[in-house]
Amino acid sequence: MEDGPGGLGELDERITHCRACPRLVAWRESRQGEHARPVRAAFARETYWARPVPGFGPPDASLLIVGLAPAAHGGNRTGRMFTGDRAGDVLFRALYDLGLASQPDAVAADDGMTLRGVRLTSPVHCAPPANKPTPGERDTCRPWLVTELELLRPTLRAVVVLGGFGWQATLPALTAAGLHVPRPRPVFAHGARVALDGGPVLHGCYHVSQRNTFTGRLTPAMLRTVLRAAAQDAGLPVHPDGAADQEGTASDS
What we know:
The chain is of the alpha/beta class. The chain is built from eight helices and five strands, in the order H-H-E-H-H-E-H-E-H-E-E-H-H. It has helices at residues 8-15, 22-28, 75-78, 86-97, 135-152, 164-176, 210-215, 220-234; strands spanning 63-66, 118-121, 158-162, 193-195, 201-205. A hairpin with a 5-residue loop joins strand 4 and strand 5.
């Protein structure tokens, strides 16, 4: 589907020029210059993107996956959501296993990766120190997510939110985009499913962070279970992967 004027392509371009949060601007650009902070040896010769990272995926996506923020040596390096870091490795592998991504590995913005009916975004578009944006930075970035939801609304059927921070950021953005969020607001839980009146179905999932995946709090099977359920709500065909599904029920991440 072609994206016309005023669409997601234009929004993505505008996002890349944002300088609204001084702390995040300083952090994302801190790799550059004479006093740059140390970087991983594997990336020492690379020129980092070092700008806000826009969403990734087709403009007519029916499934939106909302993360937290770009990783310092992932999206902040490559310029594409969840690309070039271990959290992204887990997510793209799961999407590939279900037939929603064209390849299992995402290593660079020009690696040929395409998503099928899925778009990736985050409530904060700049890499934050220690992977922890402040509530104020989240709120400053919210209008971008609101506009993205508004543009996707004609085709959007399901939303997967990765982690409690993203959940708390997404609920008010959904409301601001004109969607009805129940009161009291739904509480985040892995495996949570909330059907919004006249809108998409909201799914909760632990974040694909190393903390969660290395400890086994989130396993590949658990992730595939949530993504499969969301894809079905979105009307997307998925491949059976043959793995035993596991559903979590605990609260926050």
